[in-house]
Every structure is written in C-alpha cells, then in structure tokens.
Fold each of these.
Amino acid sequence: MFLSDGMSYLAECRMAEDGESVTYTRGATSLTITAVRGRIKQPANLTNDRTTVNASDMDFLIDPAVLAFATAEPLKGDRITVGSEVYEVMPTVSGEQCWIPCDDYGHLIRVHTRREV
Amino acid sequence: MARSDDLAAAVMTLIETASVSSPADGIEQGFAPEHKRIEMTGRYVYVFALPPTTVGQLTRAKELREYKVAIVVVERYADPAAGGEVEAVPEDWIKTRKTWVSDYIFSTLNPKSVRPLSMWPNRCEIVTDVDFANIQNKIFWSEIEVDYREIATN
C-alpha cells in the first residue's frame, strides 16, 4: 500500500494547493466541496457539416469521499457551481462515462462537465 | 443571386408565413452558421441551398433540373437538470419540437401544389427526426431535405 499512501498524500497536497470551494448539487441537495479545475476544452460540435455549436467543457478533480449522496459517484445531470458559472455533469469525452479515476487507487476522480450557465 | 439561393429564400418565406402563429426565434439562409452553446436561446431555422443537378435531358433544348434545399432546426434545452437524472431533456420538450417541424416545415413544403419559383417538390423528407448525439448534448437538431424540380432551358 506504499504507492496508494503516496498517491493519497499527493492528492491531499493538490487539493490544499490548487483547490477552490465549489457547490455540488444533485436534486435539492447541495454540498460545498473542494475541487480543482482540470482540463478546459472548447469543442466545436459539428453537426452534419451544416452548423457549428461551440461548447465550453471543464473537468473537475474531486475527492470522491466528499460526495455524501446515496449514490456516492457523480451522476449525469449533477451540477457544479463556481461563482456565477454552472457546469453540468455529462459524458463530454468520447468513449467515457461522466467521470474517471485520476489514479489507480481512486483517491481523486476527474468529473467531466459542460458549462450550462 | 443564383437560382438555388433564390429558391432557398422562397422556401424561407414559405416557412415564415406558415409559422406566423408560432414563429421561430430566428430564421435565415445558412452558409456556415455558428453558435456559442451557452448563449443559445430559442429556436433557429437555417435554410441551405445545395448545388443543382441535371436529372435528364428532355429535348435538345430542355432538361429536367433538380434543386436541393436543406432546412436545419436547432434549439438548446437550457433548463439545468435536477441531477442524477437519466433523461436530462424531457420527452415532452422533444415531442413539441418534433411536432413543430412536422407542422410548419414538412407539412408546408411537402404538398405538390406548393411551388416556389414554379418548381415542384419531388421529394420532401425529414432526414433527421431527432439527432441522438445532439440530444445527449441537450440540443434539439432536426434536418429536412426537399428536392425541387423544374424544366429548364439549356
């Protein structure tokens, strides 16, 4: 478990250094948690080569242990609010669900979102 | 203006006139329209003129010519999901948009008696009813194609 302990320590350091307070919402329940902004993308979703719709995608790194819901993993449709910006959890990366583990032990997870507001 | 663009303009007018009781928020001839997703509000209709083709030679001086027009209807579902939902976009919302496309575009352009620029519709088809990938992306996308024909002089 030496590697797992090391990864856990690194995850804690990352949260402490780069983390910011965000609101994680599912239905009527909101939690204030710490998250790190990850990859930002501005994909252009071409639709049948006729129109272009430009989206704003963002990944958030979070500790899955803080998601105190009955289902303790991110679900499609959950929302993450940072200031006036609202991001919705959705599978934005082809071939992936709406979240993936950041490391082999799952100390941090990467949640895929798309800006809605 | 090219005849295909004139036809697209005429088709656009037909749709505008037919949907006056329930108009789209924007309707225009499309060449390369682009949207910012989070700023999309309302229903947009784009009418595209596609290149004409010769279907066959009728006489030495006349040919049967076909003009294609594509109509794209696009609208973003802007209400945030409640969270943990399987269906982020309500079925009723999608159904309302499908009905609008059927009532105001397909039913307007499909009758053979509706002849913009004296051309008749040889084929009118809802090519994409609801685009699955886009509805996952919370965007309604529907596409209609109409083939108009006329007898043209060489």
Amino acid sequence: MPTTQWTWRTPVTDRADGYTRMRYTDMNRITQNINYLVDYAADLGFSIVRKYCQKSTWTQNDIIYLAEWNSLLERLNAVANAVGYKYEGFAPSTWMTYTNINNVEKMTLGVYTTLTLAERNHMPLYVGDNLFAGDGFNAAIAVPSTT
Amino acid sequence: MATISSENDKTIRKSMLVEFKMPIADNSGVLTFYTDSSRKIYDFTLNNTTFPMRKLADLQGDGFPLDNSCKLYDPNTSASSLNGKIGLRGNIGDPLSFRVASTTRINALRIKSSGTRRMNIVATGAESVAYDLTGDDTIVPPENSQNFTVFFYPETPETRVEIDFIVLPQYLVINNHNLIRANLALRTNMAPDNPTWQESNIEVQAHFPNDMMSLLRTFLTNWSITYQAGYNQQMSPLRYFYINEPIVQDDNVVTIRATDASRFMEGVTLQKQGFGAIGNNKPWGAGETATCKDSLTTQTFTTRVRSELMKSGAGGVPGIRSVIPTTTYDFYGYNVRPEMSLKDFIMTIMNLTEDQQGRQTPIYKFSYVDAGIPTINCDNLDTIVRRINYEDLANIERTYAQPIKRVEAAAQERPFDCILFTTSDPIYTQLIDWAADSVVEFTPTQEQEMAEFGAANGGRSTFINWTTEKAVMKVNTSGTAAPNYKPLLTSGGTTYYDDVSLAEGKTIQMESMSRGFRLGDVYVFSPRYLSQRKTNYVSFEWKGDPRWQPRDWINIPGGYGYPSFYGVIESIEITHEGGGTRQKVVAQERKYVD
C-alpha cells in the first residue's frame, strides 16, 4: 500500500442509464482515487511526478469546471501510461454521460489492479514498446552433430 | 414540431400554450446590475431574455443527470443562443444579493429565477418589502423605486439561487405559468333577419402571489389585452380585446374582463369616420384583405368590398349587382350614405356577402381583428373550411326550423331596405317602376341563381333560390300587373299560386323584400328572404382549436347517426382551465336545394 493521504474507494462502474445522477461524492471518489494511483505508482518506482488533480475535494456548492475535469483526465492518462495500462474501452472524454463516467472509473480500476499485481510480484512491470522472447537465437546456436 | 393540427390529431394532446399580454406604460428605463461577493458565477446576461440558461455540471442538491444535457462550466464560452448563458448563480444555501439601478422609475420588474421562492427589495431609505416568487414573476417594486438592492433566498439549504433575467417588462403577461382560467366568447351577427350586433368578450383569471394593484390600476378602461394560443410552431391569430371594467385582485387572484372593439363604433357614422368621395380606387387584388378598423381602411374596405361584389357578379359567379354598374374595376367619386352607422354598414356588408352562401367555396372570407370586427378577404384559395368528425365531438345538439314556404312583403311601399333616396335622384323613377311592376313567379329550374338587379343592362329580372323544397322564386319586372310582393311556389312542376296549404312550412312577413345600401348613384342589393333559410343549427363541444373564429365555414361529414353538416360558425366559446382547453361551437347550416 502506498504512503499517501488519499484513500482508495471501490469505483462505481455499472451506471445503467442517463437518469443516473453525478453527485459530489462521485467526484470525490474519482479524483481521490486518481490521486491515490499517482502516489501508488510513484511508490512502486514507476516514472511519474506526484502531481494531483487540480481539485480533489468537492462539495454540493461546486460546479465542475472544464479545466478541472481536463486536469482529472490528464492525471488519469498520465498514471495509466506510467504503469503501462491500456484501457480497452473508449477513451474518457469531457462528455457528462453515464458511459463516459463508467469509463473513467473502469480505467481507475484497471490501473489499480495493475499496480496491485506489480506490488505483489515485488517488482515493477516492464514498460516498453515490445518485449522480445529470444526467438531468432535458435539459428545461431550450434547444434551438436550426431554423426 | 408541435402544431395545433398535429396535436389535435392525437387522442391526448400536449397542453396548449396560452398567452394574454397587456402593455405596461412608462417602463422603458435601462437597468444596470452591480453584483457582490454573494455570487458564485455570472456572465453579465441578466438583461437577456432570449438566451436559454446553460445547464451546467452542478453538484448542488442531488447532483446532475448523466445524460449529456449538462455541460462542464467554461468561463471562456461566450453566451449565445446556441451556448446558452450563465445568468447569475449564487452559493448553495446562501442568499444572493445585488444592486439594481434604473435610469427611470421602475413600474414593474419581470424576474425569471430558480432555486428560490422568496425575495426582498430594499430601496434606499425605505423598509424592506418581501415578495413570493414562482419562477417567472412580474412584481411591482415599492413606489418610486429607481435604485435598490434585491435579496434572493434559496429554497432549501441544498439549493442554489439562479437568476435567468431581470428586465423591465413592456407587457404584463398571463400564460400557462399563472393562468387559472380564461373564457373567451367570440360572436358574430347571424340572426336570420334584422341581426343585432354581437359583442365578443373575455374573462381571465390569473394567480399573482404579490400585490399587483398599483400596476393594475394603470390599466384603465379601454386598455388593450391580446390573446393567443397554440403551440410553438403554430399559434392562433393575435386577437385584441379592450378592458371594460376595473381589474380586481382578490386573494392573489387577478380577474380581467374585456370586450372587443365594438363599443368604439357606438354612434360612429360613416360620415364621422371621414367617409367621403374617393377617387381612383384601385381594384382589389386576389389575396388582399380589407379591414374596417379605422377611417382610412373603412374607405378601402367599402370600396373594395363593393368592387369585388360587382366583379364577382360580372365574372360569371352569381353575385350581387348594382343598379348602375360602371365598369368592373373602376369606380370614381361616390359617396356612401353618410348617416349610416359603421355598425349597420358592417352588418350589411357581412350579410350581403353571406347571401352568396350555398357554395362549397365561399368567395368572401371574414376573419377578425379586434375580436368581433371583421376583415374581409377576397380569395377563393384562402377560404377556410374547418373540418371535424363527429367522433371528436361531445354534447352534440342539432336543431331544425320549420321550412319557409311563403314570404310576404308587409309594407309594399318599402320594397327596399336601407335605401334613402329622393325623387330628384335619377334612379328613383326606375326603382319605383321596378317595384311597382314586379310580378313574382316561381320556377324550379333556376335554383342556383342569385339575385340580380340589372336595370342598366336592360334585364330587370331577379332569380332567387328560396327554400329547401326545390322551389325558386322569380321576379319578373316586364309585366304590367299590379304590385304584388307575395312570392308564389312551384314544386314538382306544379305551380301553387298563393296556395300555402299545399306547401309545408310557414309563412313569414318581411318589411321589405330586399336590402342593400347606396353608394352615391349606385345601389347594391340582395334579396332579403334568402336569410330566412338560415335557421338550422348544430352545437357541440370538443377539445378545441383557437384558430377557429366566427364566420369560418365548418364541414362535419355524416356518421354516428348524424347527417353531414355544412355551415358557418356563429359563436365560439373557448375555455382554458387546469392546463386543458375545450371549445363550444354553434354553427348555422348552409344548405342549398339538394
């Protein structure tokens, strides 16, 4: 577990329709989970700056600014890239739809799972473009003759 | 795309938009707003009533729906009809206050708000005045207010006050937001004979949560109030009424009563209206309308109606002829009887044109300005026939009158109504001769002929479609018999002279057999007894169409045990109440021999 002021809360990923409402508690969970993931990744040695969402504590008096939401998306993408997690769904955007918010929270859950596995194996996962497994060496190996 | 027609085709339609407007005098200052630290966000659009409020990703209360209707707030997005606006929004649970300054004294303020039900106005050196709000309110500030501070209080501790706009209204508006009940009675004069003027009126009840009397007192008698109803994509014509008694507010309910412009015509003669000789009147083109609202248009109205009446007659469509037609299109220098009242004149015109009834496409369409005051429109293509089915109607009543078989002229010395002429008039002798030599006969083969008085053309004969019993009256002026104004009947090839017993129906007496008016040296007539046939009625209720008006034609195909009906609407009562609309219609049957 990382040394952090943020607490991980289980993401909500099963919003079913547009009648679902976005509350300040949802925003607190999303932003603080992202901040948690930033600290978690940094503690495990991944290459990421400990920079948090522009706004991390929300109340009923708040109106979500475009800049604040963009900051949230930037941090989420940064930590995902740092740990090498690639989200299979649509990339989260600025649309306030239930599917988009599901995607944001699914992505935080995916990054969290990746970091948990990395911590369990006591080593950072390989982060790079390709991983070569040694094929091609076979031709160079001298095979002892049987004759 | 909601229209009245498309909504009426549905079994359950959307609630109809209803709007009454009364102009507010002396409320034309310029407002300036000074916000303070109590606001959260704003964008200087408080005087803009057209931009919609932008729905934001606002976490107040229970949050916002995730249906893409709410946008992230971007201070760099300018207000527009497309982007919407921010207005002025306060902090959650806190009062929102700001100062308002006007260049002139404020008689009324219109405030559109949400998240609040209560506000106070504190003018300099005056006590605070409290107001209740309902969302879209016209309020009356303390007297002589020009600069003051307003405080809006949130509805709950979890609610944010949002102000859409604050403006100086040019109209006091009563609409679905505050309307309790509205009754409109639109009437016309379609009595069979000697019609009396029918006045249209309205009664409107609306809810205003605050004391409005200081404003309502400025709406004096004869102040105008307009009415419109329908849907965004299709509203009824704007109808004007005029307040005829003081407006009252009792327990937050304001009651307004008004009538049409009829009373402005009391005692007004054509002479008083400046009706004089007119030269070089141009013909009335298809699609044009004429109105009798004022002096100028009264002249136009008269000229063009008469012109068109004659034109229609000359054009092959049986119509009303003048005694001395000049040409079809050109009329120079004539006078209408100056002592004729405007009301009488309008009724005469209306009934003259109504005498062309019986045709599927009436030539003249009356529409209404100022409620009961007609505009006449000459255009076959513009004819309005309201079509409706019995299945859409309720409380249907049909009444039938006894058919008329015999008409007698009671006063032989007055064969023509509405005509004043002297023995010095050159036409006098001709007219008297015509009347004196008349012999009335019938023939069943001339049913579709209308009256024609064509002395100038040398043929002084008149063909009149008379009863529904396939009897047609013929006036033959070529004989030398003694004066005889008693019409005689033929039916089935047999002629019954004066034998009432052989014909069903009743005998009526009329003071005169024709009616009309004089335009200088020209006389325009129509056979008066035609109107006697208009005595069958239908009345019904249905969900209503606010575009309908008296004198519209109506067609109800037969069904559900009722015969088909074709006629003209005589009166309409519209009621808007509880978000619904209903309409009662009375129509007079128009039916030729069939």
